[in-house]
Amino acid sequence: MNVVELFERSVTRSGAGFDQTFRHRYRTSTEGLWAALTTEDRIARWLGPVAERSADGRTLVINIGSGDALAPARVAVRRCTPPTDLAVDWEWQGRPASLVTAALRPVDQDHVELTLRHHAVASEPLVVGYGGGWEWCLLALGSEAGAERWTADRLDDHERAAHEAWRRVLEGDG
Q1: In what residue span(s) does the Activator of Hsp90 ATPase homologue 1/2-like C-terminal domain sit (predicted)?
Q2: If DSSP codes are grouped into helix, strand and coil, which group holds residue 96?
Q3: Whole-model pTM?
Q4: Helix spans in the chain (H)
Q5: Taking each helix axis from N to C terminus, what angle separates 124-144 and 152-171, rounded to the nearest 10 degrees?
Q6: Mind listing the pLDDT tens digit for each residue in 94-137?
Q7: Which member of 22, 50, 78, 151 has the greatest number of CB atoms within 10 A?
């Protein structure tokens, strides 16, 4: 399968910018994918290590990237209904907070579908950038959940292809 076809992508314009949706199926259980999404040590393996955590555990600072490209993201939990629904305020690289939601839906006994929505993305270039970046992370999430196997080189190749796919979505050709 062409790596670009691994995701169902859509974007809609909203008053605050763009709402971007990613949909991907994983060969794992809902509980397994939920644990990979929400357990601190497992988050470190697909998104980045948790650098700070509030006393109540509802706000995290996650270091995304590595070396000189390290960029902390502040994540504040708005809603958490295990094992299917998560909503967080997302702050990254000095941009205003936006809402990111994740919904898990069992497809059958061996597969679960994740729908991730990033709301209020401020511009088309950010839709393209977040598109490739989120897809890189979501495929790495699949590896962490034991659902898929991705090398760093394959993830990087997919991210570049995903940027182009998101450009086509914005042009109405995706």
Answers
A1: 28-140
A2: coil
A3: 0.92
A4: 30-38, 40-46, 124-144, 152-171
A5: 140
A6: 888 899 999 999 999 999 999 999 999 999 999 999 999 999 99
A7: 22
Query: Is 97:78 a contact under the CB 8 Å cutoff?
Result: no
Residue with tokens 């060969």: 27
Q: How does pLDDT run across 38-91, given as a tens digit for each residue?
A: 999 999 999 999 999 999 999 999 999 766 778 999 999 999 999 999 999 999
| DSSP states of 134-161 | HHHHHHHHHHHTTS----HHHHHHHHHH
What the block records as the tokens of 106 is 């069992």
Q: Are 163 and 131 in contact (CB under 8 A)?
A: yes
In the chain, what is the straight-line distance between the N-terminal and C-terminal CA atoms, in Å?
17
What 3-state class would DSSP assign to 68? helix
**What are the extents of the domains in the chain?**
8-173
CATH code of the domain occupying 8-173: 3.30.530.20
